[in-house]
Amino acid sequence: MAIETAYIQEKMQQKFADKVSNFEMQNDIFSFEVTSDSVREVILFLKEEEDTNFHFLTDLCGVHYPDNEESRQFCVVYHLHNWVENTRIRVKTYLNGTQPEVATISDVFLSSNWMERETYDFYGIKFIGHPQLKRILNMDEMVSFPLRKEFPMEDNGRTDKDDRFFGRTANC
Fold first, then answer.
1. I need a labelling partner for 40 at 20 to 30 A (CA). Which of 46, 77, 80, 85 fits?
2. Which residues of 52-63 are buried (b: 16+ CB within 10 A; e: fewer)?
3. How many domains are there within the chain?
4. pTM: predicted TM-score of the whole model, two decimal places
5. Residue 103 has what pLDDT?
6. What is the chain's Cα-based Rg?
7. Does 83 score more than 60 pLDDT?
8. pLDDT at residue 1 is higher than 50
């Protein structure tokens, strides 16, 4: 029997009050937002609390919303799973656009180590306290973050592609 979403919401509001908000079902997954300074504490609580028992981090990723207000331009999304009750939840925290950073959870979920590195590599989100926060897929010399919306979709300097193969003529 899955944990009731109302129970999770009540438990979170009792423990964290105004640090958690916007509880809703999104595509059959219970979701809510956490302030960036409390996200580590919330995730630790969800894992260690016997009633919630979210012992598995399914995914951690970043999202860039350049059109949002400055304080909500980046988002880190955590997907947690309670295997016993077969319940999934999504925890989101929004970050400042000029200096996106949040506390690491790599000591809470060891699997988040590489996920946080990947999120840093593609979005430039810094995970404070991470043991080895460096690029994981892109070159170390790269100065930009390719999944940010301001990153150009195509590199005009590439010589290894022919626009004809992409349905475009060379004059476009």
1. 85
2. bbbeebeebbbe
3. 1
4. 0.86
5. 98
6. 19
7. yes
8. no
Residue 35 lies inside a defined structural domain of this protein: yes
Whether the predicted pLDDT of 81 surpasses 80: yes
Task: Write down the pLDDT at residue 150.
Answer: 79
Count of C-beta atoms within a 10 Å radius of residue 166: 9
Identify any residues that bridge with 93 across adjacent strands, giving them in sequence order.
Answer: 76
Question: Are 26 and 87 contacting, i.e. CB atoms less than 8 angstroms apart?
Answer: no
Domain span at residue 60?
Answer: 5-102
Tokens of 56: 């598995």
Give the CB-side neighbour count of residue 99, counting CA atoms within 13 A.
1
For residues 55 and 48, what is the distance between their CA atoms, to the nearest angstrom? Answer: 8
| Confidence at 144, pLDDT banded by 50, 70, 90 | confident
Which 8-state DSSP code applies to residue 135?
Answer: -
CA 112 to chain centre: 10
Q: In this predicted structure, what is the pLDDT of residue 117?
A: 97
Judge contact between 58 and 88, C-beta under 8 A: yes
H-assigned helices in 102-159 = 112-123
As a whole number of angstroms, the distance between CA 146 and CA 138 comes to 9
- Distance of alpha carbon 142 from alpha carbon 151, whole angstroms: 12
